[in-house]
Amino acid sequence: MNKGKATVLLLSVVGQATVLPLSALAAGNEGISLQRMVYSESDDRMSVDYTQVALNKDFGTDFSFSVSGSIDAMTGATPAVDAKTGASNYANSDGFLLSEGISDPSGYERQLFEMEDERKAVNSALTWRTAKRHEWTGGLSYSEEEDYESRGFSVEHLHNLHPSRNRTLSVGYSQLENDVLFYRENVWRDATYQTVEVGLTEVLSRTSLVKVSVFGMQESGALSNPYKRIIRKVNIAPEGDTPVFRYFLSPDSRPDERDVAGIDVKGVKRVEWRDTPVTQHLNYRFYSDTWGVNSHTLESKTYLGSPDVGLGQWFAGLRYMIQDAASFYFDDDAVFDVSGFGSVDKRLSDFNDVTVSLGWERSIAQHWRVQARGSYQTQSVDLDMTWAWLGVKYAF
Hints:
mainly beta
């Protein structure tokens, strides 16, 4: 383990804090699937090699079960502020200040530190449908790395508000319990993430529907990043003497609580173009939290054709996101006071990103289907990302 290692979440490549989707563990069509994904960042930073195996199985018409397991290997480098000559150990016993301090803050700079780790994860879910076809889904999840462990559960209820099932209400709750190793002190600290989401889906016609959801999230515990550092200005002169300031590295420091609220609006429309089905998905998402981060996301997804005939089904996606910075975020060379919260983590900064995706899916033989997709994202914080995955599924 390198001291510069940072936890990388595959679902966080969009660059902003996201709410755990409550439907992430929902069962799909019967079958077994294998997926491989590769992810890379510009400037030879992070690379991820991801493999997942998933099984979906129905038991009659009332029960569905799904389980998946994944392994992803992470290698590369991650940025952090450090002394140009290399940081020393803690300057005091409580770990608040790092190095011995220097007289000029320009002696610090943003550097890349090599890292390598492997994550293993497993997810499972069971869905039960009542006589009136209401649904209850419960899920469990677990993942671990060398310096990170996560355990979670979720429960979701889908209630039909009309006998035609054209109007449904979904209510869900999920909770994650994470343990993170703060490596400098060799201490494990925990954090809890609780999410509530309520959604209303209305089928407008045989070819269109709309869904509106509101969500809330509460985070508490160790929310700081143990691998990020900031620069603090400290008066080292005795009280009453002429101030003498030195500049120290100090750990990333964030509030131990965060509340999140937001709204998500989705629309789906299906049309025929030259006897070819075209399905359009449009999505708008607003996110706001008590750290001062606000974001707006617009996304369009288009599906052309059918995976069972002709050239298969083609996919094109375009996504744009803009985000405000957290109240305690500043750039890498910023100097913070001796006390108070502070972070130079770019994921908390004021930035925008654009993501373009292309994909294809086709049935290649009885029971067999292949999928391929590639995406490119560029962020205004001088970071570009690409990822591509290939999947094959055998349907029961």
